[in-house]
Amino acid sequence: MQPEPCSCLLEAPRTMKIGLFIPCFINELFPHVAMATLELLESLGCEVDYPLQQSCCGQPLANNGDSKGACDAAKRFTAVFQQYDYVVAPSGSCVSHVTHHYDWYIAEDPAYQQLKPKVYEIIEFLQDVLKLEKLPKPVYFPHKVSIHQSCHGLRELHHASPSELMMPYHSRLESILKLVDGVEVLLPERRDECCGFGGTFCVDEPELSTAMGEDRIAQHEATGAEYIVGADPSCLMHMGGIIRHQGKTIRPLHIVEILTGRGAGA
């Protein structure tokens, strides 16, 4: 009978190595969202690295027809992040650009094809990879929140069921907020309507973009919520600017701020 191997010689399980992708506007305007994402991943046992060589994913270049610039950005992203087990970001629109639109520019690059299935938006990653059923520490958030489903997250990352498909309703954001004590989750009347940001659309059509944002905020306010909660800071930024300009009391909040307990003082 063979003796049992010495426990000191058994190989310890390898820690999941995450490349943290922080889109440029989050780095400049919402560093607290980046820090909350880092804190959440590390609290769940992930080894997180923030490669300083990272830059813009190229979405603004693609939106404005700069195919060469968008291609260069895609190649840079692939080179910077290909070493990691997974790449995680707190921005649905940037992740959807990487996973759904890089094929326009570097579809034949084998390094990108290997990387693509490893790139996740943070809520996707928590639910699909980590299979999160409990937060690493209890979080109490005794507030009413209205869920904002951003367009890229809704239709490309399947954060929720689009109403036009006439299928049973589901929402990733609503589901994960069930792990938080005290929170009351509400939905606006038109649950998946665009806020009007649209990347460069808000620059090309500022009046229309603002009008759409005002309508969307009014729908969230009508729920009686104190916060508009979403997973895409670009939409929260757009609505937040209108809210501040008009002196409204409702506040935009990224969902990771709630999951880490950072949202209570927002």
Automatic annotation (TrEMBL):
One Pfam short name: CCG
PANTHER family given in the database record: LACTATE UTILIZATION PROTEIN A, UNCHARACTERIZED PROTEIN YKGE
InterPro entries in alphabetical order: Cys_rich_dom (IPR004017)
GO cellular component: cytosol
Domain Cysteine-rich: 19-98, 145-239
GO MF annotations in UniProt: oxidoreductase activity
The name this protein goes by in its record: Predicted L-lactate dehydrogenase, Fe-S oxidoreductase subunit YkgE
